[in-house]
Amino acid sequence: MPLEFGLWRVDGQPVRVATRPMSVESKLEDLIEADPEILGRPLLLIGRQVQTGHGKFIDLLGIDAEGGLHILELKRDRTPREVVAQLLDYGSWVQALSNEQVREIHGAYARKRGLAEELDEAFALCFGSSPPEALNGTHTLTVVASEVDAATERIVTYLASGYQVPLNVLFFRCFEDEGRVYLARTWLIDDAEVAAPSTGTKARGKQEQWNGTDWYVSFGDESGGRSWEDALQYGFVSAGGGEWFSRTLRSLPVGARVFTHIPKVGYVGVGTVSGEPQPFADTVLTVGDESRRMADLPLKGGYRPDRGPTQEGNTADRREWIVPVEWEQAVPREKAYWRTGLFANQNSACKLRARFTIDEVSRHFGIG
Question: Which residue ranges form the domains of the chain, and what is each CATH number?
Fold first, then answer.
């Protein structure tokens, strides 16, 4: 049977609040754009009336914190068959969008509205974190309607529950009480029952392309007894205290360009890896024109020199690993650079695909 729900005022005796004709259905698109939280889930809108490759226009296109895309289509006066068929057609087009195409759609939308044009910045403002490396790994289809007739309910339930099509209906009802107008919402199908499919073999292009050179390094100078002053003066990055912390740093190849970030502080340097990773006790660094054992330098940090896997009864490698770096540009901690949307990650090192971060940090440090 068609979905329905009511609202009661209970100051004293329960009084049912009257529904009113959903004249605001034509305004729903404006209301959702003004406050996407009306949908009941965190969502960043990246497009409105987005033209597809088939000459049609998607009412609203959004992205969630996991990088999945959400296609929102208002039912308006169309039949259930028409609106569902339209959504399926949109889904077939959206699933093929690459990372770059998603960013272009957002950029065009943001420029028209005077918003942050870079998706990284808008994503961070909305969700408080950098976007995932892969965008559009999943997508969901939503019919937005003020009324849900029996035919729509049957079609959507059949496709979503029987064939795992990521399709649902967001149903709005309008109420009026003593001159005030309220908007209530509910979903036709519980979200847990609607699976957003992965793009699977079509995931190529969902990540930002890597240029083959740039890496991100997280230099935790408040943990493990390491000091950024040492790294800045003698030219290195380091990580340790456990296999998880040092493994990614040890994957840095000679010749890689590293964008170095101090967690919760900002970017402090860009340089080129000039030597193979070595445990602290074995590391030799070039100081001036001579080679010096790192252990013999006047260091401010500790660097776990004696916690290797060769100690009796100790199988975990907790040593500090050192990677020599020739700094192209580097600054003291207090001059670190940060702005909303820049990439940050818990890994000690990873491939840096975030074009926005590469461009902004390079610009700030005057690097070509």
Answer: 15-202 (3.40.1350.10), 214-365 (3.10.590)
